[in-house]
Specification:
The complex is a heterodimer.
Chain A (H helix, E strand, L loop, with lengths): L2 E3 L4 E5 L4 E3 L2 E3 L6 E7 L6 E7 L7 E2 L2 E6 L4 E6 L8 E8 L7 E2 L3 E6 L1
Parallel strand pairs in A: 2-12
Antiparallel strand pairs in A: 1-4, 3-9, 5-6, 5-10, 7-8, 8-9, 10-11, 10-12
Chain B lengths: L4 E3 L2 E4 L5 E6 L6 E7 L6 E7 L2 E5 L7 E4 L6 E5 L8 E8 L9 E2 L3 E5 L1
Classes of the chains: A mainly beta, B mainly beta.
Chain lengths: 114, 115
């Protein structure tokens, strides 16, 4: 069974600075998708960024980028120019082949300090 | 389209009572997922549907839990004889059937408190 591990329960960052959230996973599949989801307090979870395993190039979405290391099974999220609105729980998630259900990590709570 | 809708948003019930939650997915999304999230944890998969067919159930889904999606549109999750351990946020998500890299869109969840 696939597992996703987020080793940082909490992180904080100063406004306008950069922060990196860590995620590792375990799988025997060769092709899969990885996702970062953001869950603001009392609001629904929304997709931040996704990465397909067989694509070498790291995904980027505006201030959000990933460092995908397939051999190391590592998938970190970098948030640049942090904003107060970035404060939320961030979940790393894995999806195997065939649109199977997402497997989530336990999350990292990010605080942004003004 | 207003996204994934869940009802009710909050439910307080006494131990032993039955509760039912509803999820309305984004229209034309034929995959629908139920997750449970406890405080400080990530969502845990419960079950999912493709159209009206229930394709997979987690070991977390005890006999007291049942889910339906009768016409391939909205879904209900029922918990019978609730226990205090059932207290959690119940999340629903939907996604298009095509392409397995597509994102899942989540509702705001139903928070269940069993007293």
């Amino acid at each position: 069974a696939q597992t996703v591990t987020q080793s940082q329960p909490e992180m904080s960052v100063q406004e306008a600075e950069t922060v990196t959230l860590s995620c590792t996973y375990d799988t025997s599949e060769s092709d899969y998708y990885l996702f970062w989801y953001k869950q603001p307090p009392s609001r629904q979870m929304i997709l931040v960024i996704r990465q397909e395993a067989y694509k070498q190039q790291n995904a980027t979405e505006n201030r959000f980028s990933v460092n995908f290391q397939k051999a190391a099974k590592s998938f970190s999220l970098k948030i640049s120019d942090s904003q107060l609105g970035d404060a939320a729980m961030y979940f790393c998630a894995y999806r195997g082949e065939g649109n199977t259900p997402l497997v989530f990590g336990k999350g990292t709570r990010l605080s942004v300090i003004a | 389209d207003t996204g994934v809708s869940q009802d009710p948003r909050h439910k307080i019930t006494k131990r032993g009572q039955n509760v039912t939650f509803r999820c309305d997915p984004i229209s034309e999304h034929n995959r629908l997922y139920w997750y449970r999230q406890t405080l400080g944890q990530g969502p845990e998969f419960l079950t999912y549907f493709q159209n009206e067919a229930q394709l997979e159930k987690s070991r977390l889904l005890s006999d007291r839990f049942s889910a339906e999606r009768p016409k391939g549109s909205f879904s209900t999750l029922e918990i019978q004889r609730t226990e205090q351990g059932d207290s959690a946020m119940y999340l629903c998500a939907s996604s298009p059937g095509r392409g397995w890299g597509t994102e899942a869109f989540f509702g705001q969840g139903t928070r269940l408190t069993v007293v």
